[in-house]
Amino acid sequence: MDRRLLLAAAALTVLPAAAAAGQAQGSAPDRPELFEALVRCRAVADDTARLRCFDAAAAEMEAAAERRDLVVVDRQQVRESRRRLFGLPLPRLPIFGGGDEEEEEEEIRSIESEVASASQIDFGRWVIRLADGSTWVQTDNEILAGRPRPGQPVRVSRAALGTYMMRVNNQPGIRVRRQL
């Protein structure tokens, strides 16, 4: 039963369809009905009935998680997903903390990694793959003084108007976009 209660306590978010179903039934915004059912068990006065309620609600949550109708993530998993998706044009989704003021303060503004590989394409622009697996393509015509080499440090930061700047090995920055 510990595992089921831990699963219930860790439920932070669900797939959009499950969240919409919970909202349609009058529950709190962004909280699925399965979670609300578990919370309602706390109000049951009789100890035996409350335990039955918790057991049933936890079993439903576990079954939904196994069917992948419910996705349970913790704050660290959300942070790591945001980091891996840095630079990709994604909509603000509740499953990644979109819209939460506290999450806005934790928004990732830059990432640091190392060059895994680099090559030049048309007009001498760089395509740089980072150690984290992301690939970035140069969008401006700036020239890097030194060729990016595997193992060199890289910092990619948000810039103006939804663009990104990359500094390779502390050279002046080049404007880049994330490649899918």
3D architecture notes:
The structure is a single chain. The chain folds into three domains: 2-66, no CATH class; 75-105, no CATH class; 110-179. It is 34% helix and 21% strand. By secondary structure, it is α+β, with helices and mostly antiparallel strands. It is rod-shaped. The protein has a six-stranded antiparallel beta barrel with strand order 1-2-3-6-5-4. It has helices at 2-10, 16-24, 33-40, 47-66, 75-84, 101-105, and strands at residues 110-120, 126-130, 135-138, 153-158, 164-168, 174-179.
Observed structural traits:
single chain, 180 residues, alpha+beta, 6 helices, 6 strands, 34% helix, disordered N terminus
Distance between the termini: 42 Å
H/E series? HHHHHHEEEEEE
Oligomerization status of the protein chains? single chain
Largest sheet: 6 strands, antiparallel, barrel
**What best-fitting shape do the alpha-carbon axes yield?**
rod-shaped
Mean pLDDT figure: 78
Strand order of the largest sheet: 1-2-3-6-5-4
Continuous helix count = 6
The value of Rg in angstroms is: 23 Å
- What portion of residues belong to β-strands? 15-25%
Number of strands: 6
Domains, number: 3
Helix fraction bin: 25-40%
Weakly predicted, low-confidence segments? 1-27
Structural class: alpha+beta
